[in-house]
Structure formats: structure tokens, C-alpha cells
Specification:
The strands form 3 sheets. A 7-stranded mixed beta sheet has the order 5-4-1-6-7-11-10. Strands 2-3 form a two-stranded antiparallel ribbon. The termini are close together. It has about 220 residues and is of the alpha/beta class. About 25% of the residues lie in helices and about 20% in strands. The protein has a single domain, classed as Rossmann fold (3-Layer(aba) Sandwich), CATH 3.40.50.880. Helix 1 packs parallel to helix 7. It is built from 7 helices and 11 strands.
Length: about 220
């Protein structure tokens, strides 16, 4: 029986509700893992908190990143599954794609928190890249512990956020928040690949880490 991965993407299309600052999912962070999982023979589906269209960050479709390789994913992102309709127990891994939009609708989402708590308890793979680990912010297990307490992981660093001049417009700084929740946050060099594996958590720091996270997941599930 083939393995299956659920990719979760954001529905948020602006930063802090400012129409002059569009955002969404960083296309390569959803597309590169999607392609890798399919190539490995896995079933892969894409869902979002609200379902329907998942906005693509316009900054992520420059410099050839919107090439033909991503056409299928771009089409799927126009009509994603609603997370509450997904039977998440049927997946072997969950992958939270990044993009600044994730900072606004991943934290505190009940469906996301239920999935993460279930996967942790059942020992299934919990993964994410860049801002995707915002899904873990303040999330707790069924016994009330922070989901990431005692776990080594990574995500978009405070240094990278400041370099983007967006730290003041985020609801929190991801590195600081996860560290406050008890995670052993592993920060690599800004904008260079950094993939961290600890137990059933596999996380990547930035867009350059998306393919590496996917590779680690494939290795684990093969």
C-alpha cells in the first residue's frame, strides 16, 4: 500500500489585513515537496483551513519559479480541500508549507492543532518549512504540554524576518515563539538550506530547505 502525505497551505492573502501587502503560500514550498512525493509514488493531497483558493505569494513566482514544473500544483491551489473535511487519520505524514500567510491562519486553528496532536501521539511524521511551523505555535498535546516542548526543530528565523523588514508586521517572531514553547530551535545561515530531524519532526528553515525536508520524509517512509 502506497504512503500518503497531506500538504497544508494557507488561505491568508495579505499581511496583517493590509491589501497593499499581498502574501500567501510560497509556491516552491508546496510545489517542490508535492512533486517529490508524487515521484516517490506517494499519494499527496493539498488542503487549507478554509478550503477553496489558496493564494500564492506574488514574490514566489518570480525568477522562473512559476515554470511548467509547478503547473499542476498551481492548479490544485485554486481549489484546495477544506481541512475540516479531510480524514487526516489516513495519512502517514503531514507537511505544513510556508509563506507569510501561514503566520496568520495556522496558529490557533483547531483543525491544525488536532492533526498535529494526533500525529505526535501516533508517532507519524510532522513536518514543515519556513513559516509552516507557525502551525506549532502555542499548540498543545492532549495532556496539555506544548507540542514542540523538548523537540529540536527549525523554521524561518528572527534574523531572516528582520532581513525581510517584516518583523514588526508579524503577530510574533516564529523562532522566539517556538523557543518560548520549549523547542530547541536550530538556526542555520540566513536563506541557506537547513533541515532538522528530531523524532517524528522534520523541519526546514526557509525556501531553500523545502526539497531537503521532502527528501527526509521520503527516506523515512520508504
Amino acid at each position: 500500500m502506497s504512503k500518503s502525505v497531506l500538504i497544508i497551505v494557507t488561505n491568508a492573502d495579505t499581511i496583517a489585513g493590509n491589501d497593499d501587502k499581498p502574501t500567501g503560500v510560497w509556491l516552491s514550498e508546496a510545489a517542490e515537496p508535492f512533486i517529490a512525493f508524487q515521484s516517490a509514488g506517494f499519494q499527496v493531497d493539498i488542503a487549507s483551513p478554509k478550503g477553496g483558493p489558496a493564494p500564492i505569494d506574488p514574490n514566489s513566482v518570480q525568477n522562473g519559479q512559476d515554470d511548467e514544473r509547478f503547473t499542476e500544483v498551481t492548479k490544485i491551489l485554486q481549489n484546495t480541500e477544506r481541512l475540516s473535511d479531510v480524514v487526516y487519520e489516513g495519512y502517514d505524514a503531514v507537511f505544513f508549507a510556508g509563506g507569510h500567510g501561514a503566520m496568520f491562519d495556522f496558529p490557533g486553528n483547531a483543525d491544525i492543532q488536532n492533526i498535529a496532536a494526533y500525529f505526535k501521539k501516533d508517532g507519524r511524521i510532522i513536518s514543515g518549512v519556513c513559516h509552516g511551523p507557525a502551525a506549532f505555535a502555542d499548540a498543545k498535546t492532549k495532556n496539555g504540554d506544548y507540542l514542540v516542548d523538548g523537540t529540536k526543530l527549525t523554521g524561518f528565523t528572527d534574523s531572516e524576518e528582520r532581513a525581510m523588514n517584516l518583523s514588526d508586521e508579524m503577530p510574533f517572531l516564529l523562532q522566539t515563539k517556538l523557543a518560548d514553547n520549549g523547542a530547541g530551535f536550530v538556526a542555520g545561515t540566513d536563506m541557506e538550506e537547513n533541515v532538522v530531524t528530531d523524532g517524528n519532526f522534520i523541519t526546514g528553515q526557509n525556501p531553500a530547505s523545502a526539497a531537503g525536508v521532502a527528501e527526509r520524509i521520503i527516506e523515512r517512509l520508504k
